[in-house]
Design a protein that fits this description.
Number of strands: 0
Order of helices and strands: HHHHH
Helix content: over 70%
Largest sheet: none
Radius of gyration: 18 Å
Distance between the termini: 49 Å
Number of helices: 5
Strand content: under 5%
Structural class: mainly alpha
Length: about 160
């Protein structure tokens, strides 16, 4: 397994743990298989979103350019780029404070901005905007799906008791 994949899974597990722990604390009667299933599913989804962040930003950067960079491989995670994100995830679970979590994600985004600007030929502010839009878009999509699933599950539970 490559170091990047391991770091992506650790970052995803950290994010998933931050989402599942508040749920477990509110519902102490949850069974272990359900909690483990939520953690595994959340880890895979969060890892996929983290993996897509630089690729989505690269696609936005290409869309902004009038003449694409020839033979450019795009922005991809390297162990040096993803390590701060893993550290951010371990130090600040989302449930510890959304503001701290947001600040750490901004710091990781700023770290990615330089390589994106160098690889794409965009200015630093344009690359930062691409990363911000990509991160916000991916986070919004995941949050929308999370809320939709919660509503569907709540509806089914309410329907079975009626």
């Amino acid at each position: 397994m490559s170091p990047v994949l391991v770091l992506l899974l650790i970052a995803g597990l950290s994010e998933a743990t931050g989402r599942v722990l508040p749920l477990v604390s509110r519902r102490p009667g949850m069974s272990r298989p359900v909690v483990v299933g939520l953690l595994l599913t959340g880890t895979l989804i969060e890892s996929a979103v983290i993996a897509l962040w630089p690729r989505t930003a690269w696609a936005l950067a290409e869309a902004l350019q009038s003449d694409p960079v020839p033979d450019a491989a795009g922005l991809v995670w390297t162990p040096g780029l993803i390590a701060p994100l893993v550290l951010a995830g371990v130090l600040a679970f989302p449930w510890l404070g959304p503001l701290l979590h947001l600040l750490l994600l901004v710091a990781v985004g700023a770290t990615l901005t330089g390589p994106l600007a160098d690889a794409s030929g965009l200015s630093w502010p344009a690359a930062a905007c691409c990363l911000a839009v990509a991160g916000f878009g991916l986070a919004s999509a995941v949050e929308l799906v999370r809320r939709l699933v919660a509503r569907v599950l709540a509806f089914r539970v309410g329907e079975s008791f009626a």
